[in-house]
Amino acid sequence: MVICFPEPSFVLLIGNQPLGVHISAIRKFLSSHPEVKNRRLTTVQVNRAVIKSETRDTNQPFINKYIDLTNSDGKPLVAPATLFVSHAWKCAFCDIVDALEQHEAKYPDTYFWLDLFAIYQNRTVHKDLVWFSTTFREDMRRIRRVLLVLSPWDDPLPLHRSWCMFEVTTALSEKKIELLISFPTGEINAFASAIVEDQHSQQHLVKVLSQIQVQNTEAKYSQDKENILEVLKKTKGGFDCVNELIICEIQKWYGEQLCRLVEKFPDDASLLLTVSDTLLKFGHLTEALDYSIACLNSKENHEVNL
């Protein structure tokens, strides 16, 4: 396979297609470095402890180690990317992988564009404003799908990261790009337990998801943040429009997760009331009314009244 590693764009195949790794490559990586999962290393820590040290001599992206390799089914470990992974580097890397495993179960043979593997880690390549305005968007169009991994559930780190919010905004503003959102399994369980058992968790969640502000996000490099904010500021409607776009999409997804909870506990009057109140605060009036009626008609509510 002939590949090139241009700067400052993504790693590319001939034909300008960004490269992704098969889930088999990620499993192979974790198998070779069990400490990543055992010690729940963050992506930052994985980069420092493993990626940088193992690519220092070649000064190439880590993905280069898997070029021309196949898994037991003969699938190449590296191929044109079909999913862009948006995640916060302060999250445990194994939690990010968990979300990718969930996606793989639904969409087999996905090739994940994962920045940890796909770009240079031993040298910093600063991108200019033109890159943020055009090249980045063009590369994401080629991949076509974005997966945003949210963790922790009650105040997701990606909502505070400039890069993640830029990736989400790019996806939402492009008709040809599909945005998917996911929790790691541990966060799914924590979310369910908290919403069912603690009303304060619901109040906190509503507050967090109503106060997303891209202009207050952070990036490792101040120059990246400045360029990202400059691009977002120049979009139609500026920051206000961008914030509203993100808030609506994130709240919509959380609303869907709440509805799934109700499917598991259809007669829990307290949960029905919590979901109704949350959806009302999200502005989903019709759905909120439906759950209020369901609460009044619930078996549990009837038993209490009796």
Your description of this structure?
With 306 residues, the protein is of the alpha/beta class. It has 2 domains: 3-260, no CATH class; 265-306, no CATH class. It is 55% helix and 9% strand. It has 14 helices and 8 strands. It has helices at 23-32, 35-38, 43-55, 93-106, 115-118, 129-143, 162-172, 185-197, 199-210, 222-233, 238-264, 269-281, 285-297, 299-305; strands at residues 3-4, 12-13, 19-22, 78-80, 83-86, 111-113, 145-149, 178-182. The strands form 2 sheets. Strands 4-3-6-5-7-8 form a 6-stranded mixed β-sheet. Helix 7 (162-172) links the parallel strand 7 and strand 8 (178-182). Helix 12 runs antiparallel to helix 13 (285-297). The longest helix has 27 residues, at 238-264. 37% of the residues are buried.
How is the secondary structure organized here?
Blueprint: E1 3-4, E2 12-13, E3 19-22, H1 23-32, H2 35-38, H3 43-55, E4 78-80, E5 83-86, H4 93-106, E6 111-113, H5 115-118, H6 129-143, E7 145-149, H7 162-172, E8 178-182, H8 185-197, H9 199-210, H10 222-233, H11 238-264, H12 269-281, H13 285-297, H14 299-305
Parallel strand pairs: 5-6, 5-7, 7-8
Antiparallel strand pairs: 1-2, 3-4, 3-6
C-alpha-based Rg, rounded? 21 Å
- Termini distance? 72 Å
Unreliable runs, pLDDT <50, ≥5 residues?
1-5
> What would you call the structural class?
alpha/beta
Helix content: 40-55%
Q: How would a crystallographer describe the biggest sheet?
A: 6 strands, mixed
Strand order of the largest sheet: 4-3-6-5-7-8
H and E string: EEEHHHEEHEHHEHEHHHHHHH
Shape: globular
